[in-house]
């Protein structure tokens, strides 16, 4: 136990943010959609890199594959 005077507790009050009107950008922003897009981008990085590499290696085949897939549907 402390014998003598303990050090004083000094709290600094947090700065209060003043009220302001909500901007149009803030009303259109959706945190859920932003997170979903970020997770999808992180998940698909490797696949997109592979497709980009394949497309740069042989551009003729990539257009043929895309056309064949559309024709099958």
From TrEMBL:
Region named Disordered: 1-23, 50-73
Compositional bias annotation for Basic and acidic residues: 52-73
Stretches assigned to coiled coil: none
Recorded superkingdom: Eukaryota
Keywords attached to this entry: Ribonucleoprotein, Ribosomal protein
One CC-aspect GO term: ribonucleoprotein complex
Known function: Component of the ribosome, a large ribonucleoprotein complex responsible for the synthesis of proteins in the cell. The small ribosomal subunit (SSU) binds messenger RNAs (mRNAs) and translates the encoded message by selecting cognate aminoacyl-transfer RNA (tRNA) molecules. The large subunit (LSU) contains the ribosomal catalytic site termed the peptidyl transferase center (PTC), which catalyzes the formation of peptide bonds, thereby polymerizing the amino acids delivered by tRNAs into a polypeptide chain.
Family to which this protein belongs: Belongs to the eukaryotic ribosomal protein eL13 family.
Subunit structure, as described in the record: Component of the 60S large ribosomal subunit (LSU).
UniProt name for this protein: Large ribosomal subunit protein eL13
Organism per entry: Cyphomyrmex costatus
Lineage: Eukaryota, Metazoa, Ecdysozoa, Arthropoda, Hexapoda
């Amino acid at each position: 136990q402390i014998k003598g005077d303990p050090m004083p507790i000094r709290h600094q009050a947090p700065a209060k943010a003043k009220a302001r009107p909500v901007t149009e950008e803030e009303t259109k922003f959706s945190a859920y959609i932003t997170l979903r897009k970020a997770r999808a981008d992180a998940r698909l990085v490797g696949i997109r890199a592979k497709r980009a590499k394949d497309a740069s290696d042989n551009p003729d085949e990539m257009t043929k594959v895309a056309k064949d897939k559309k024709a099958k549907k």
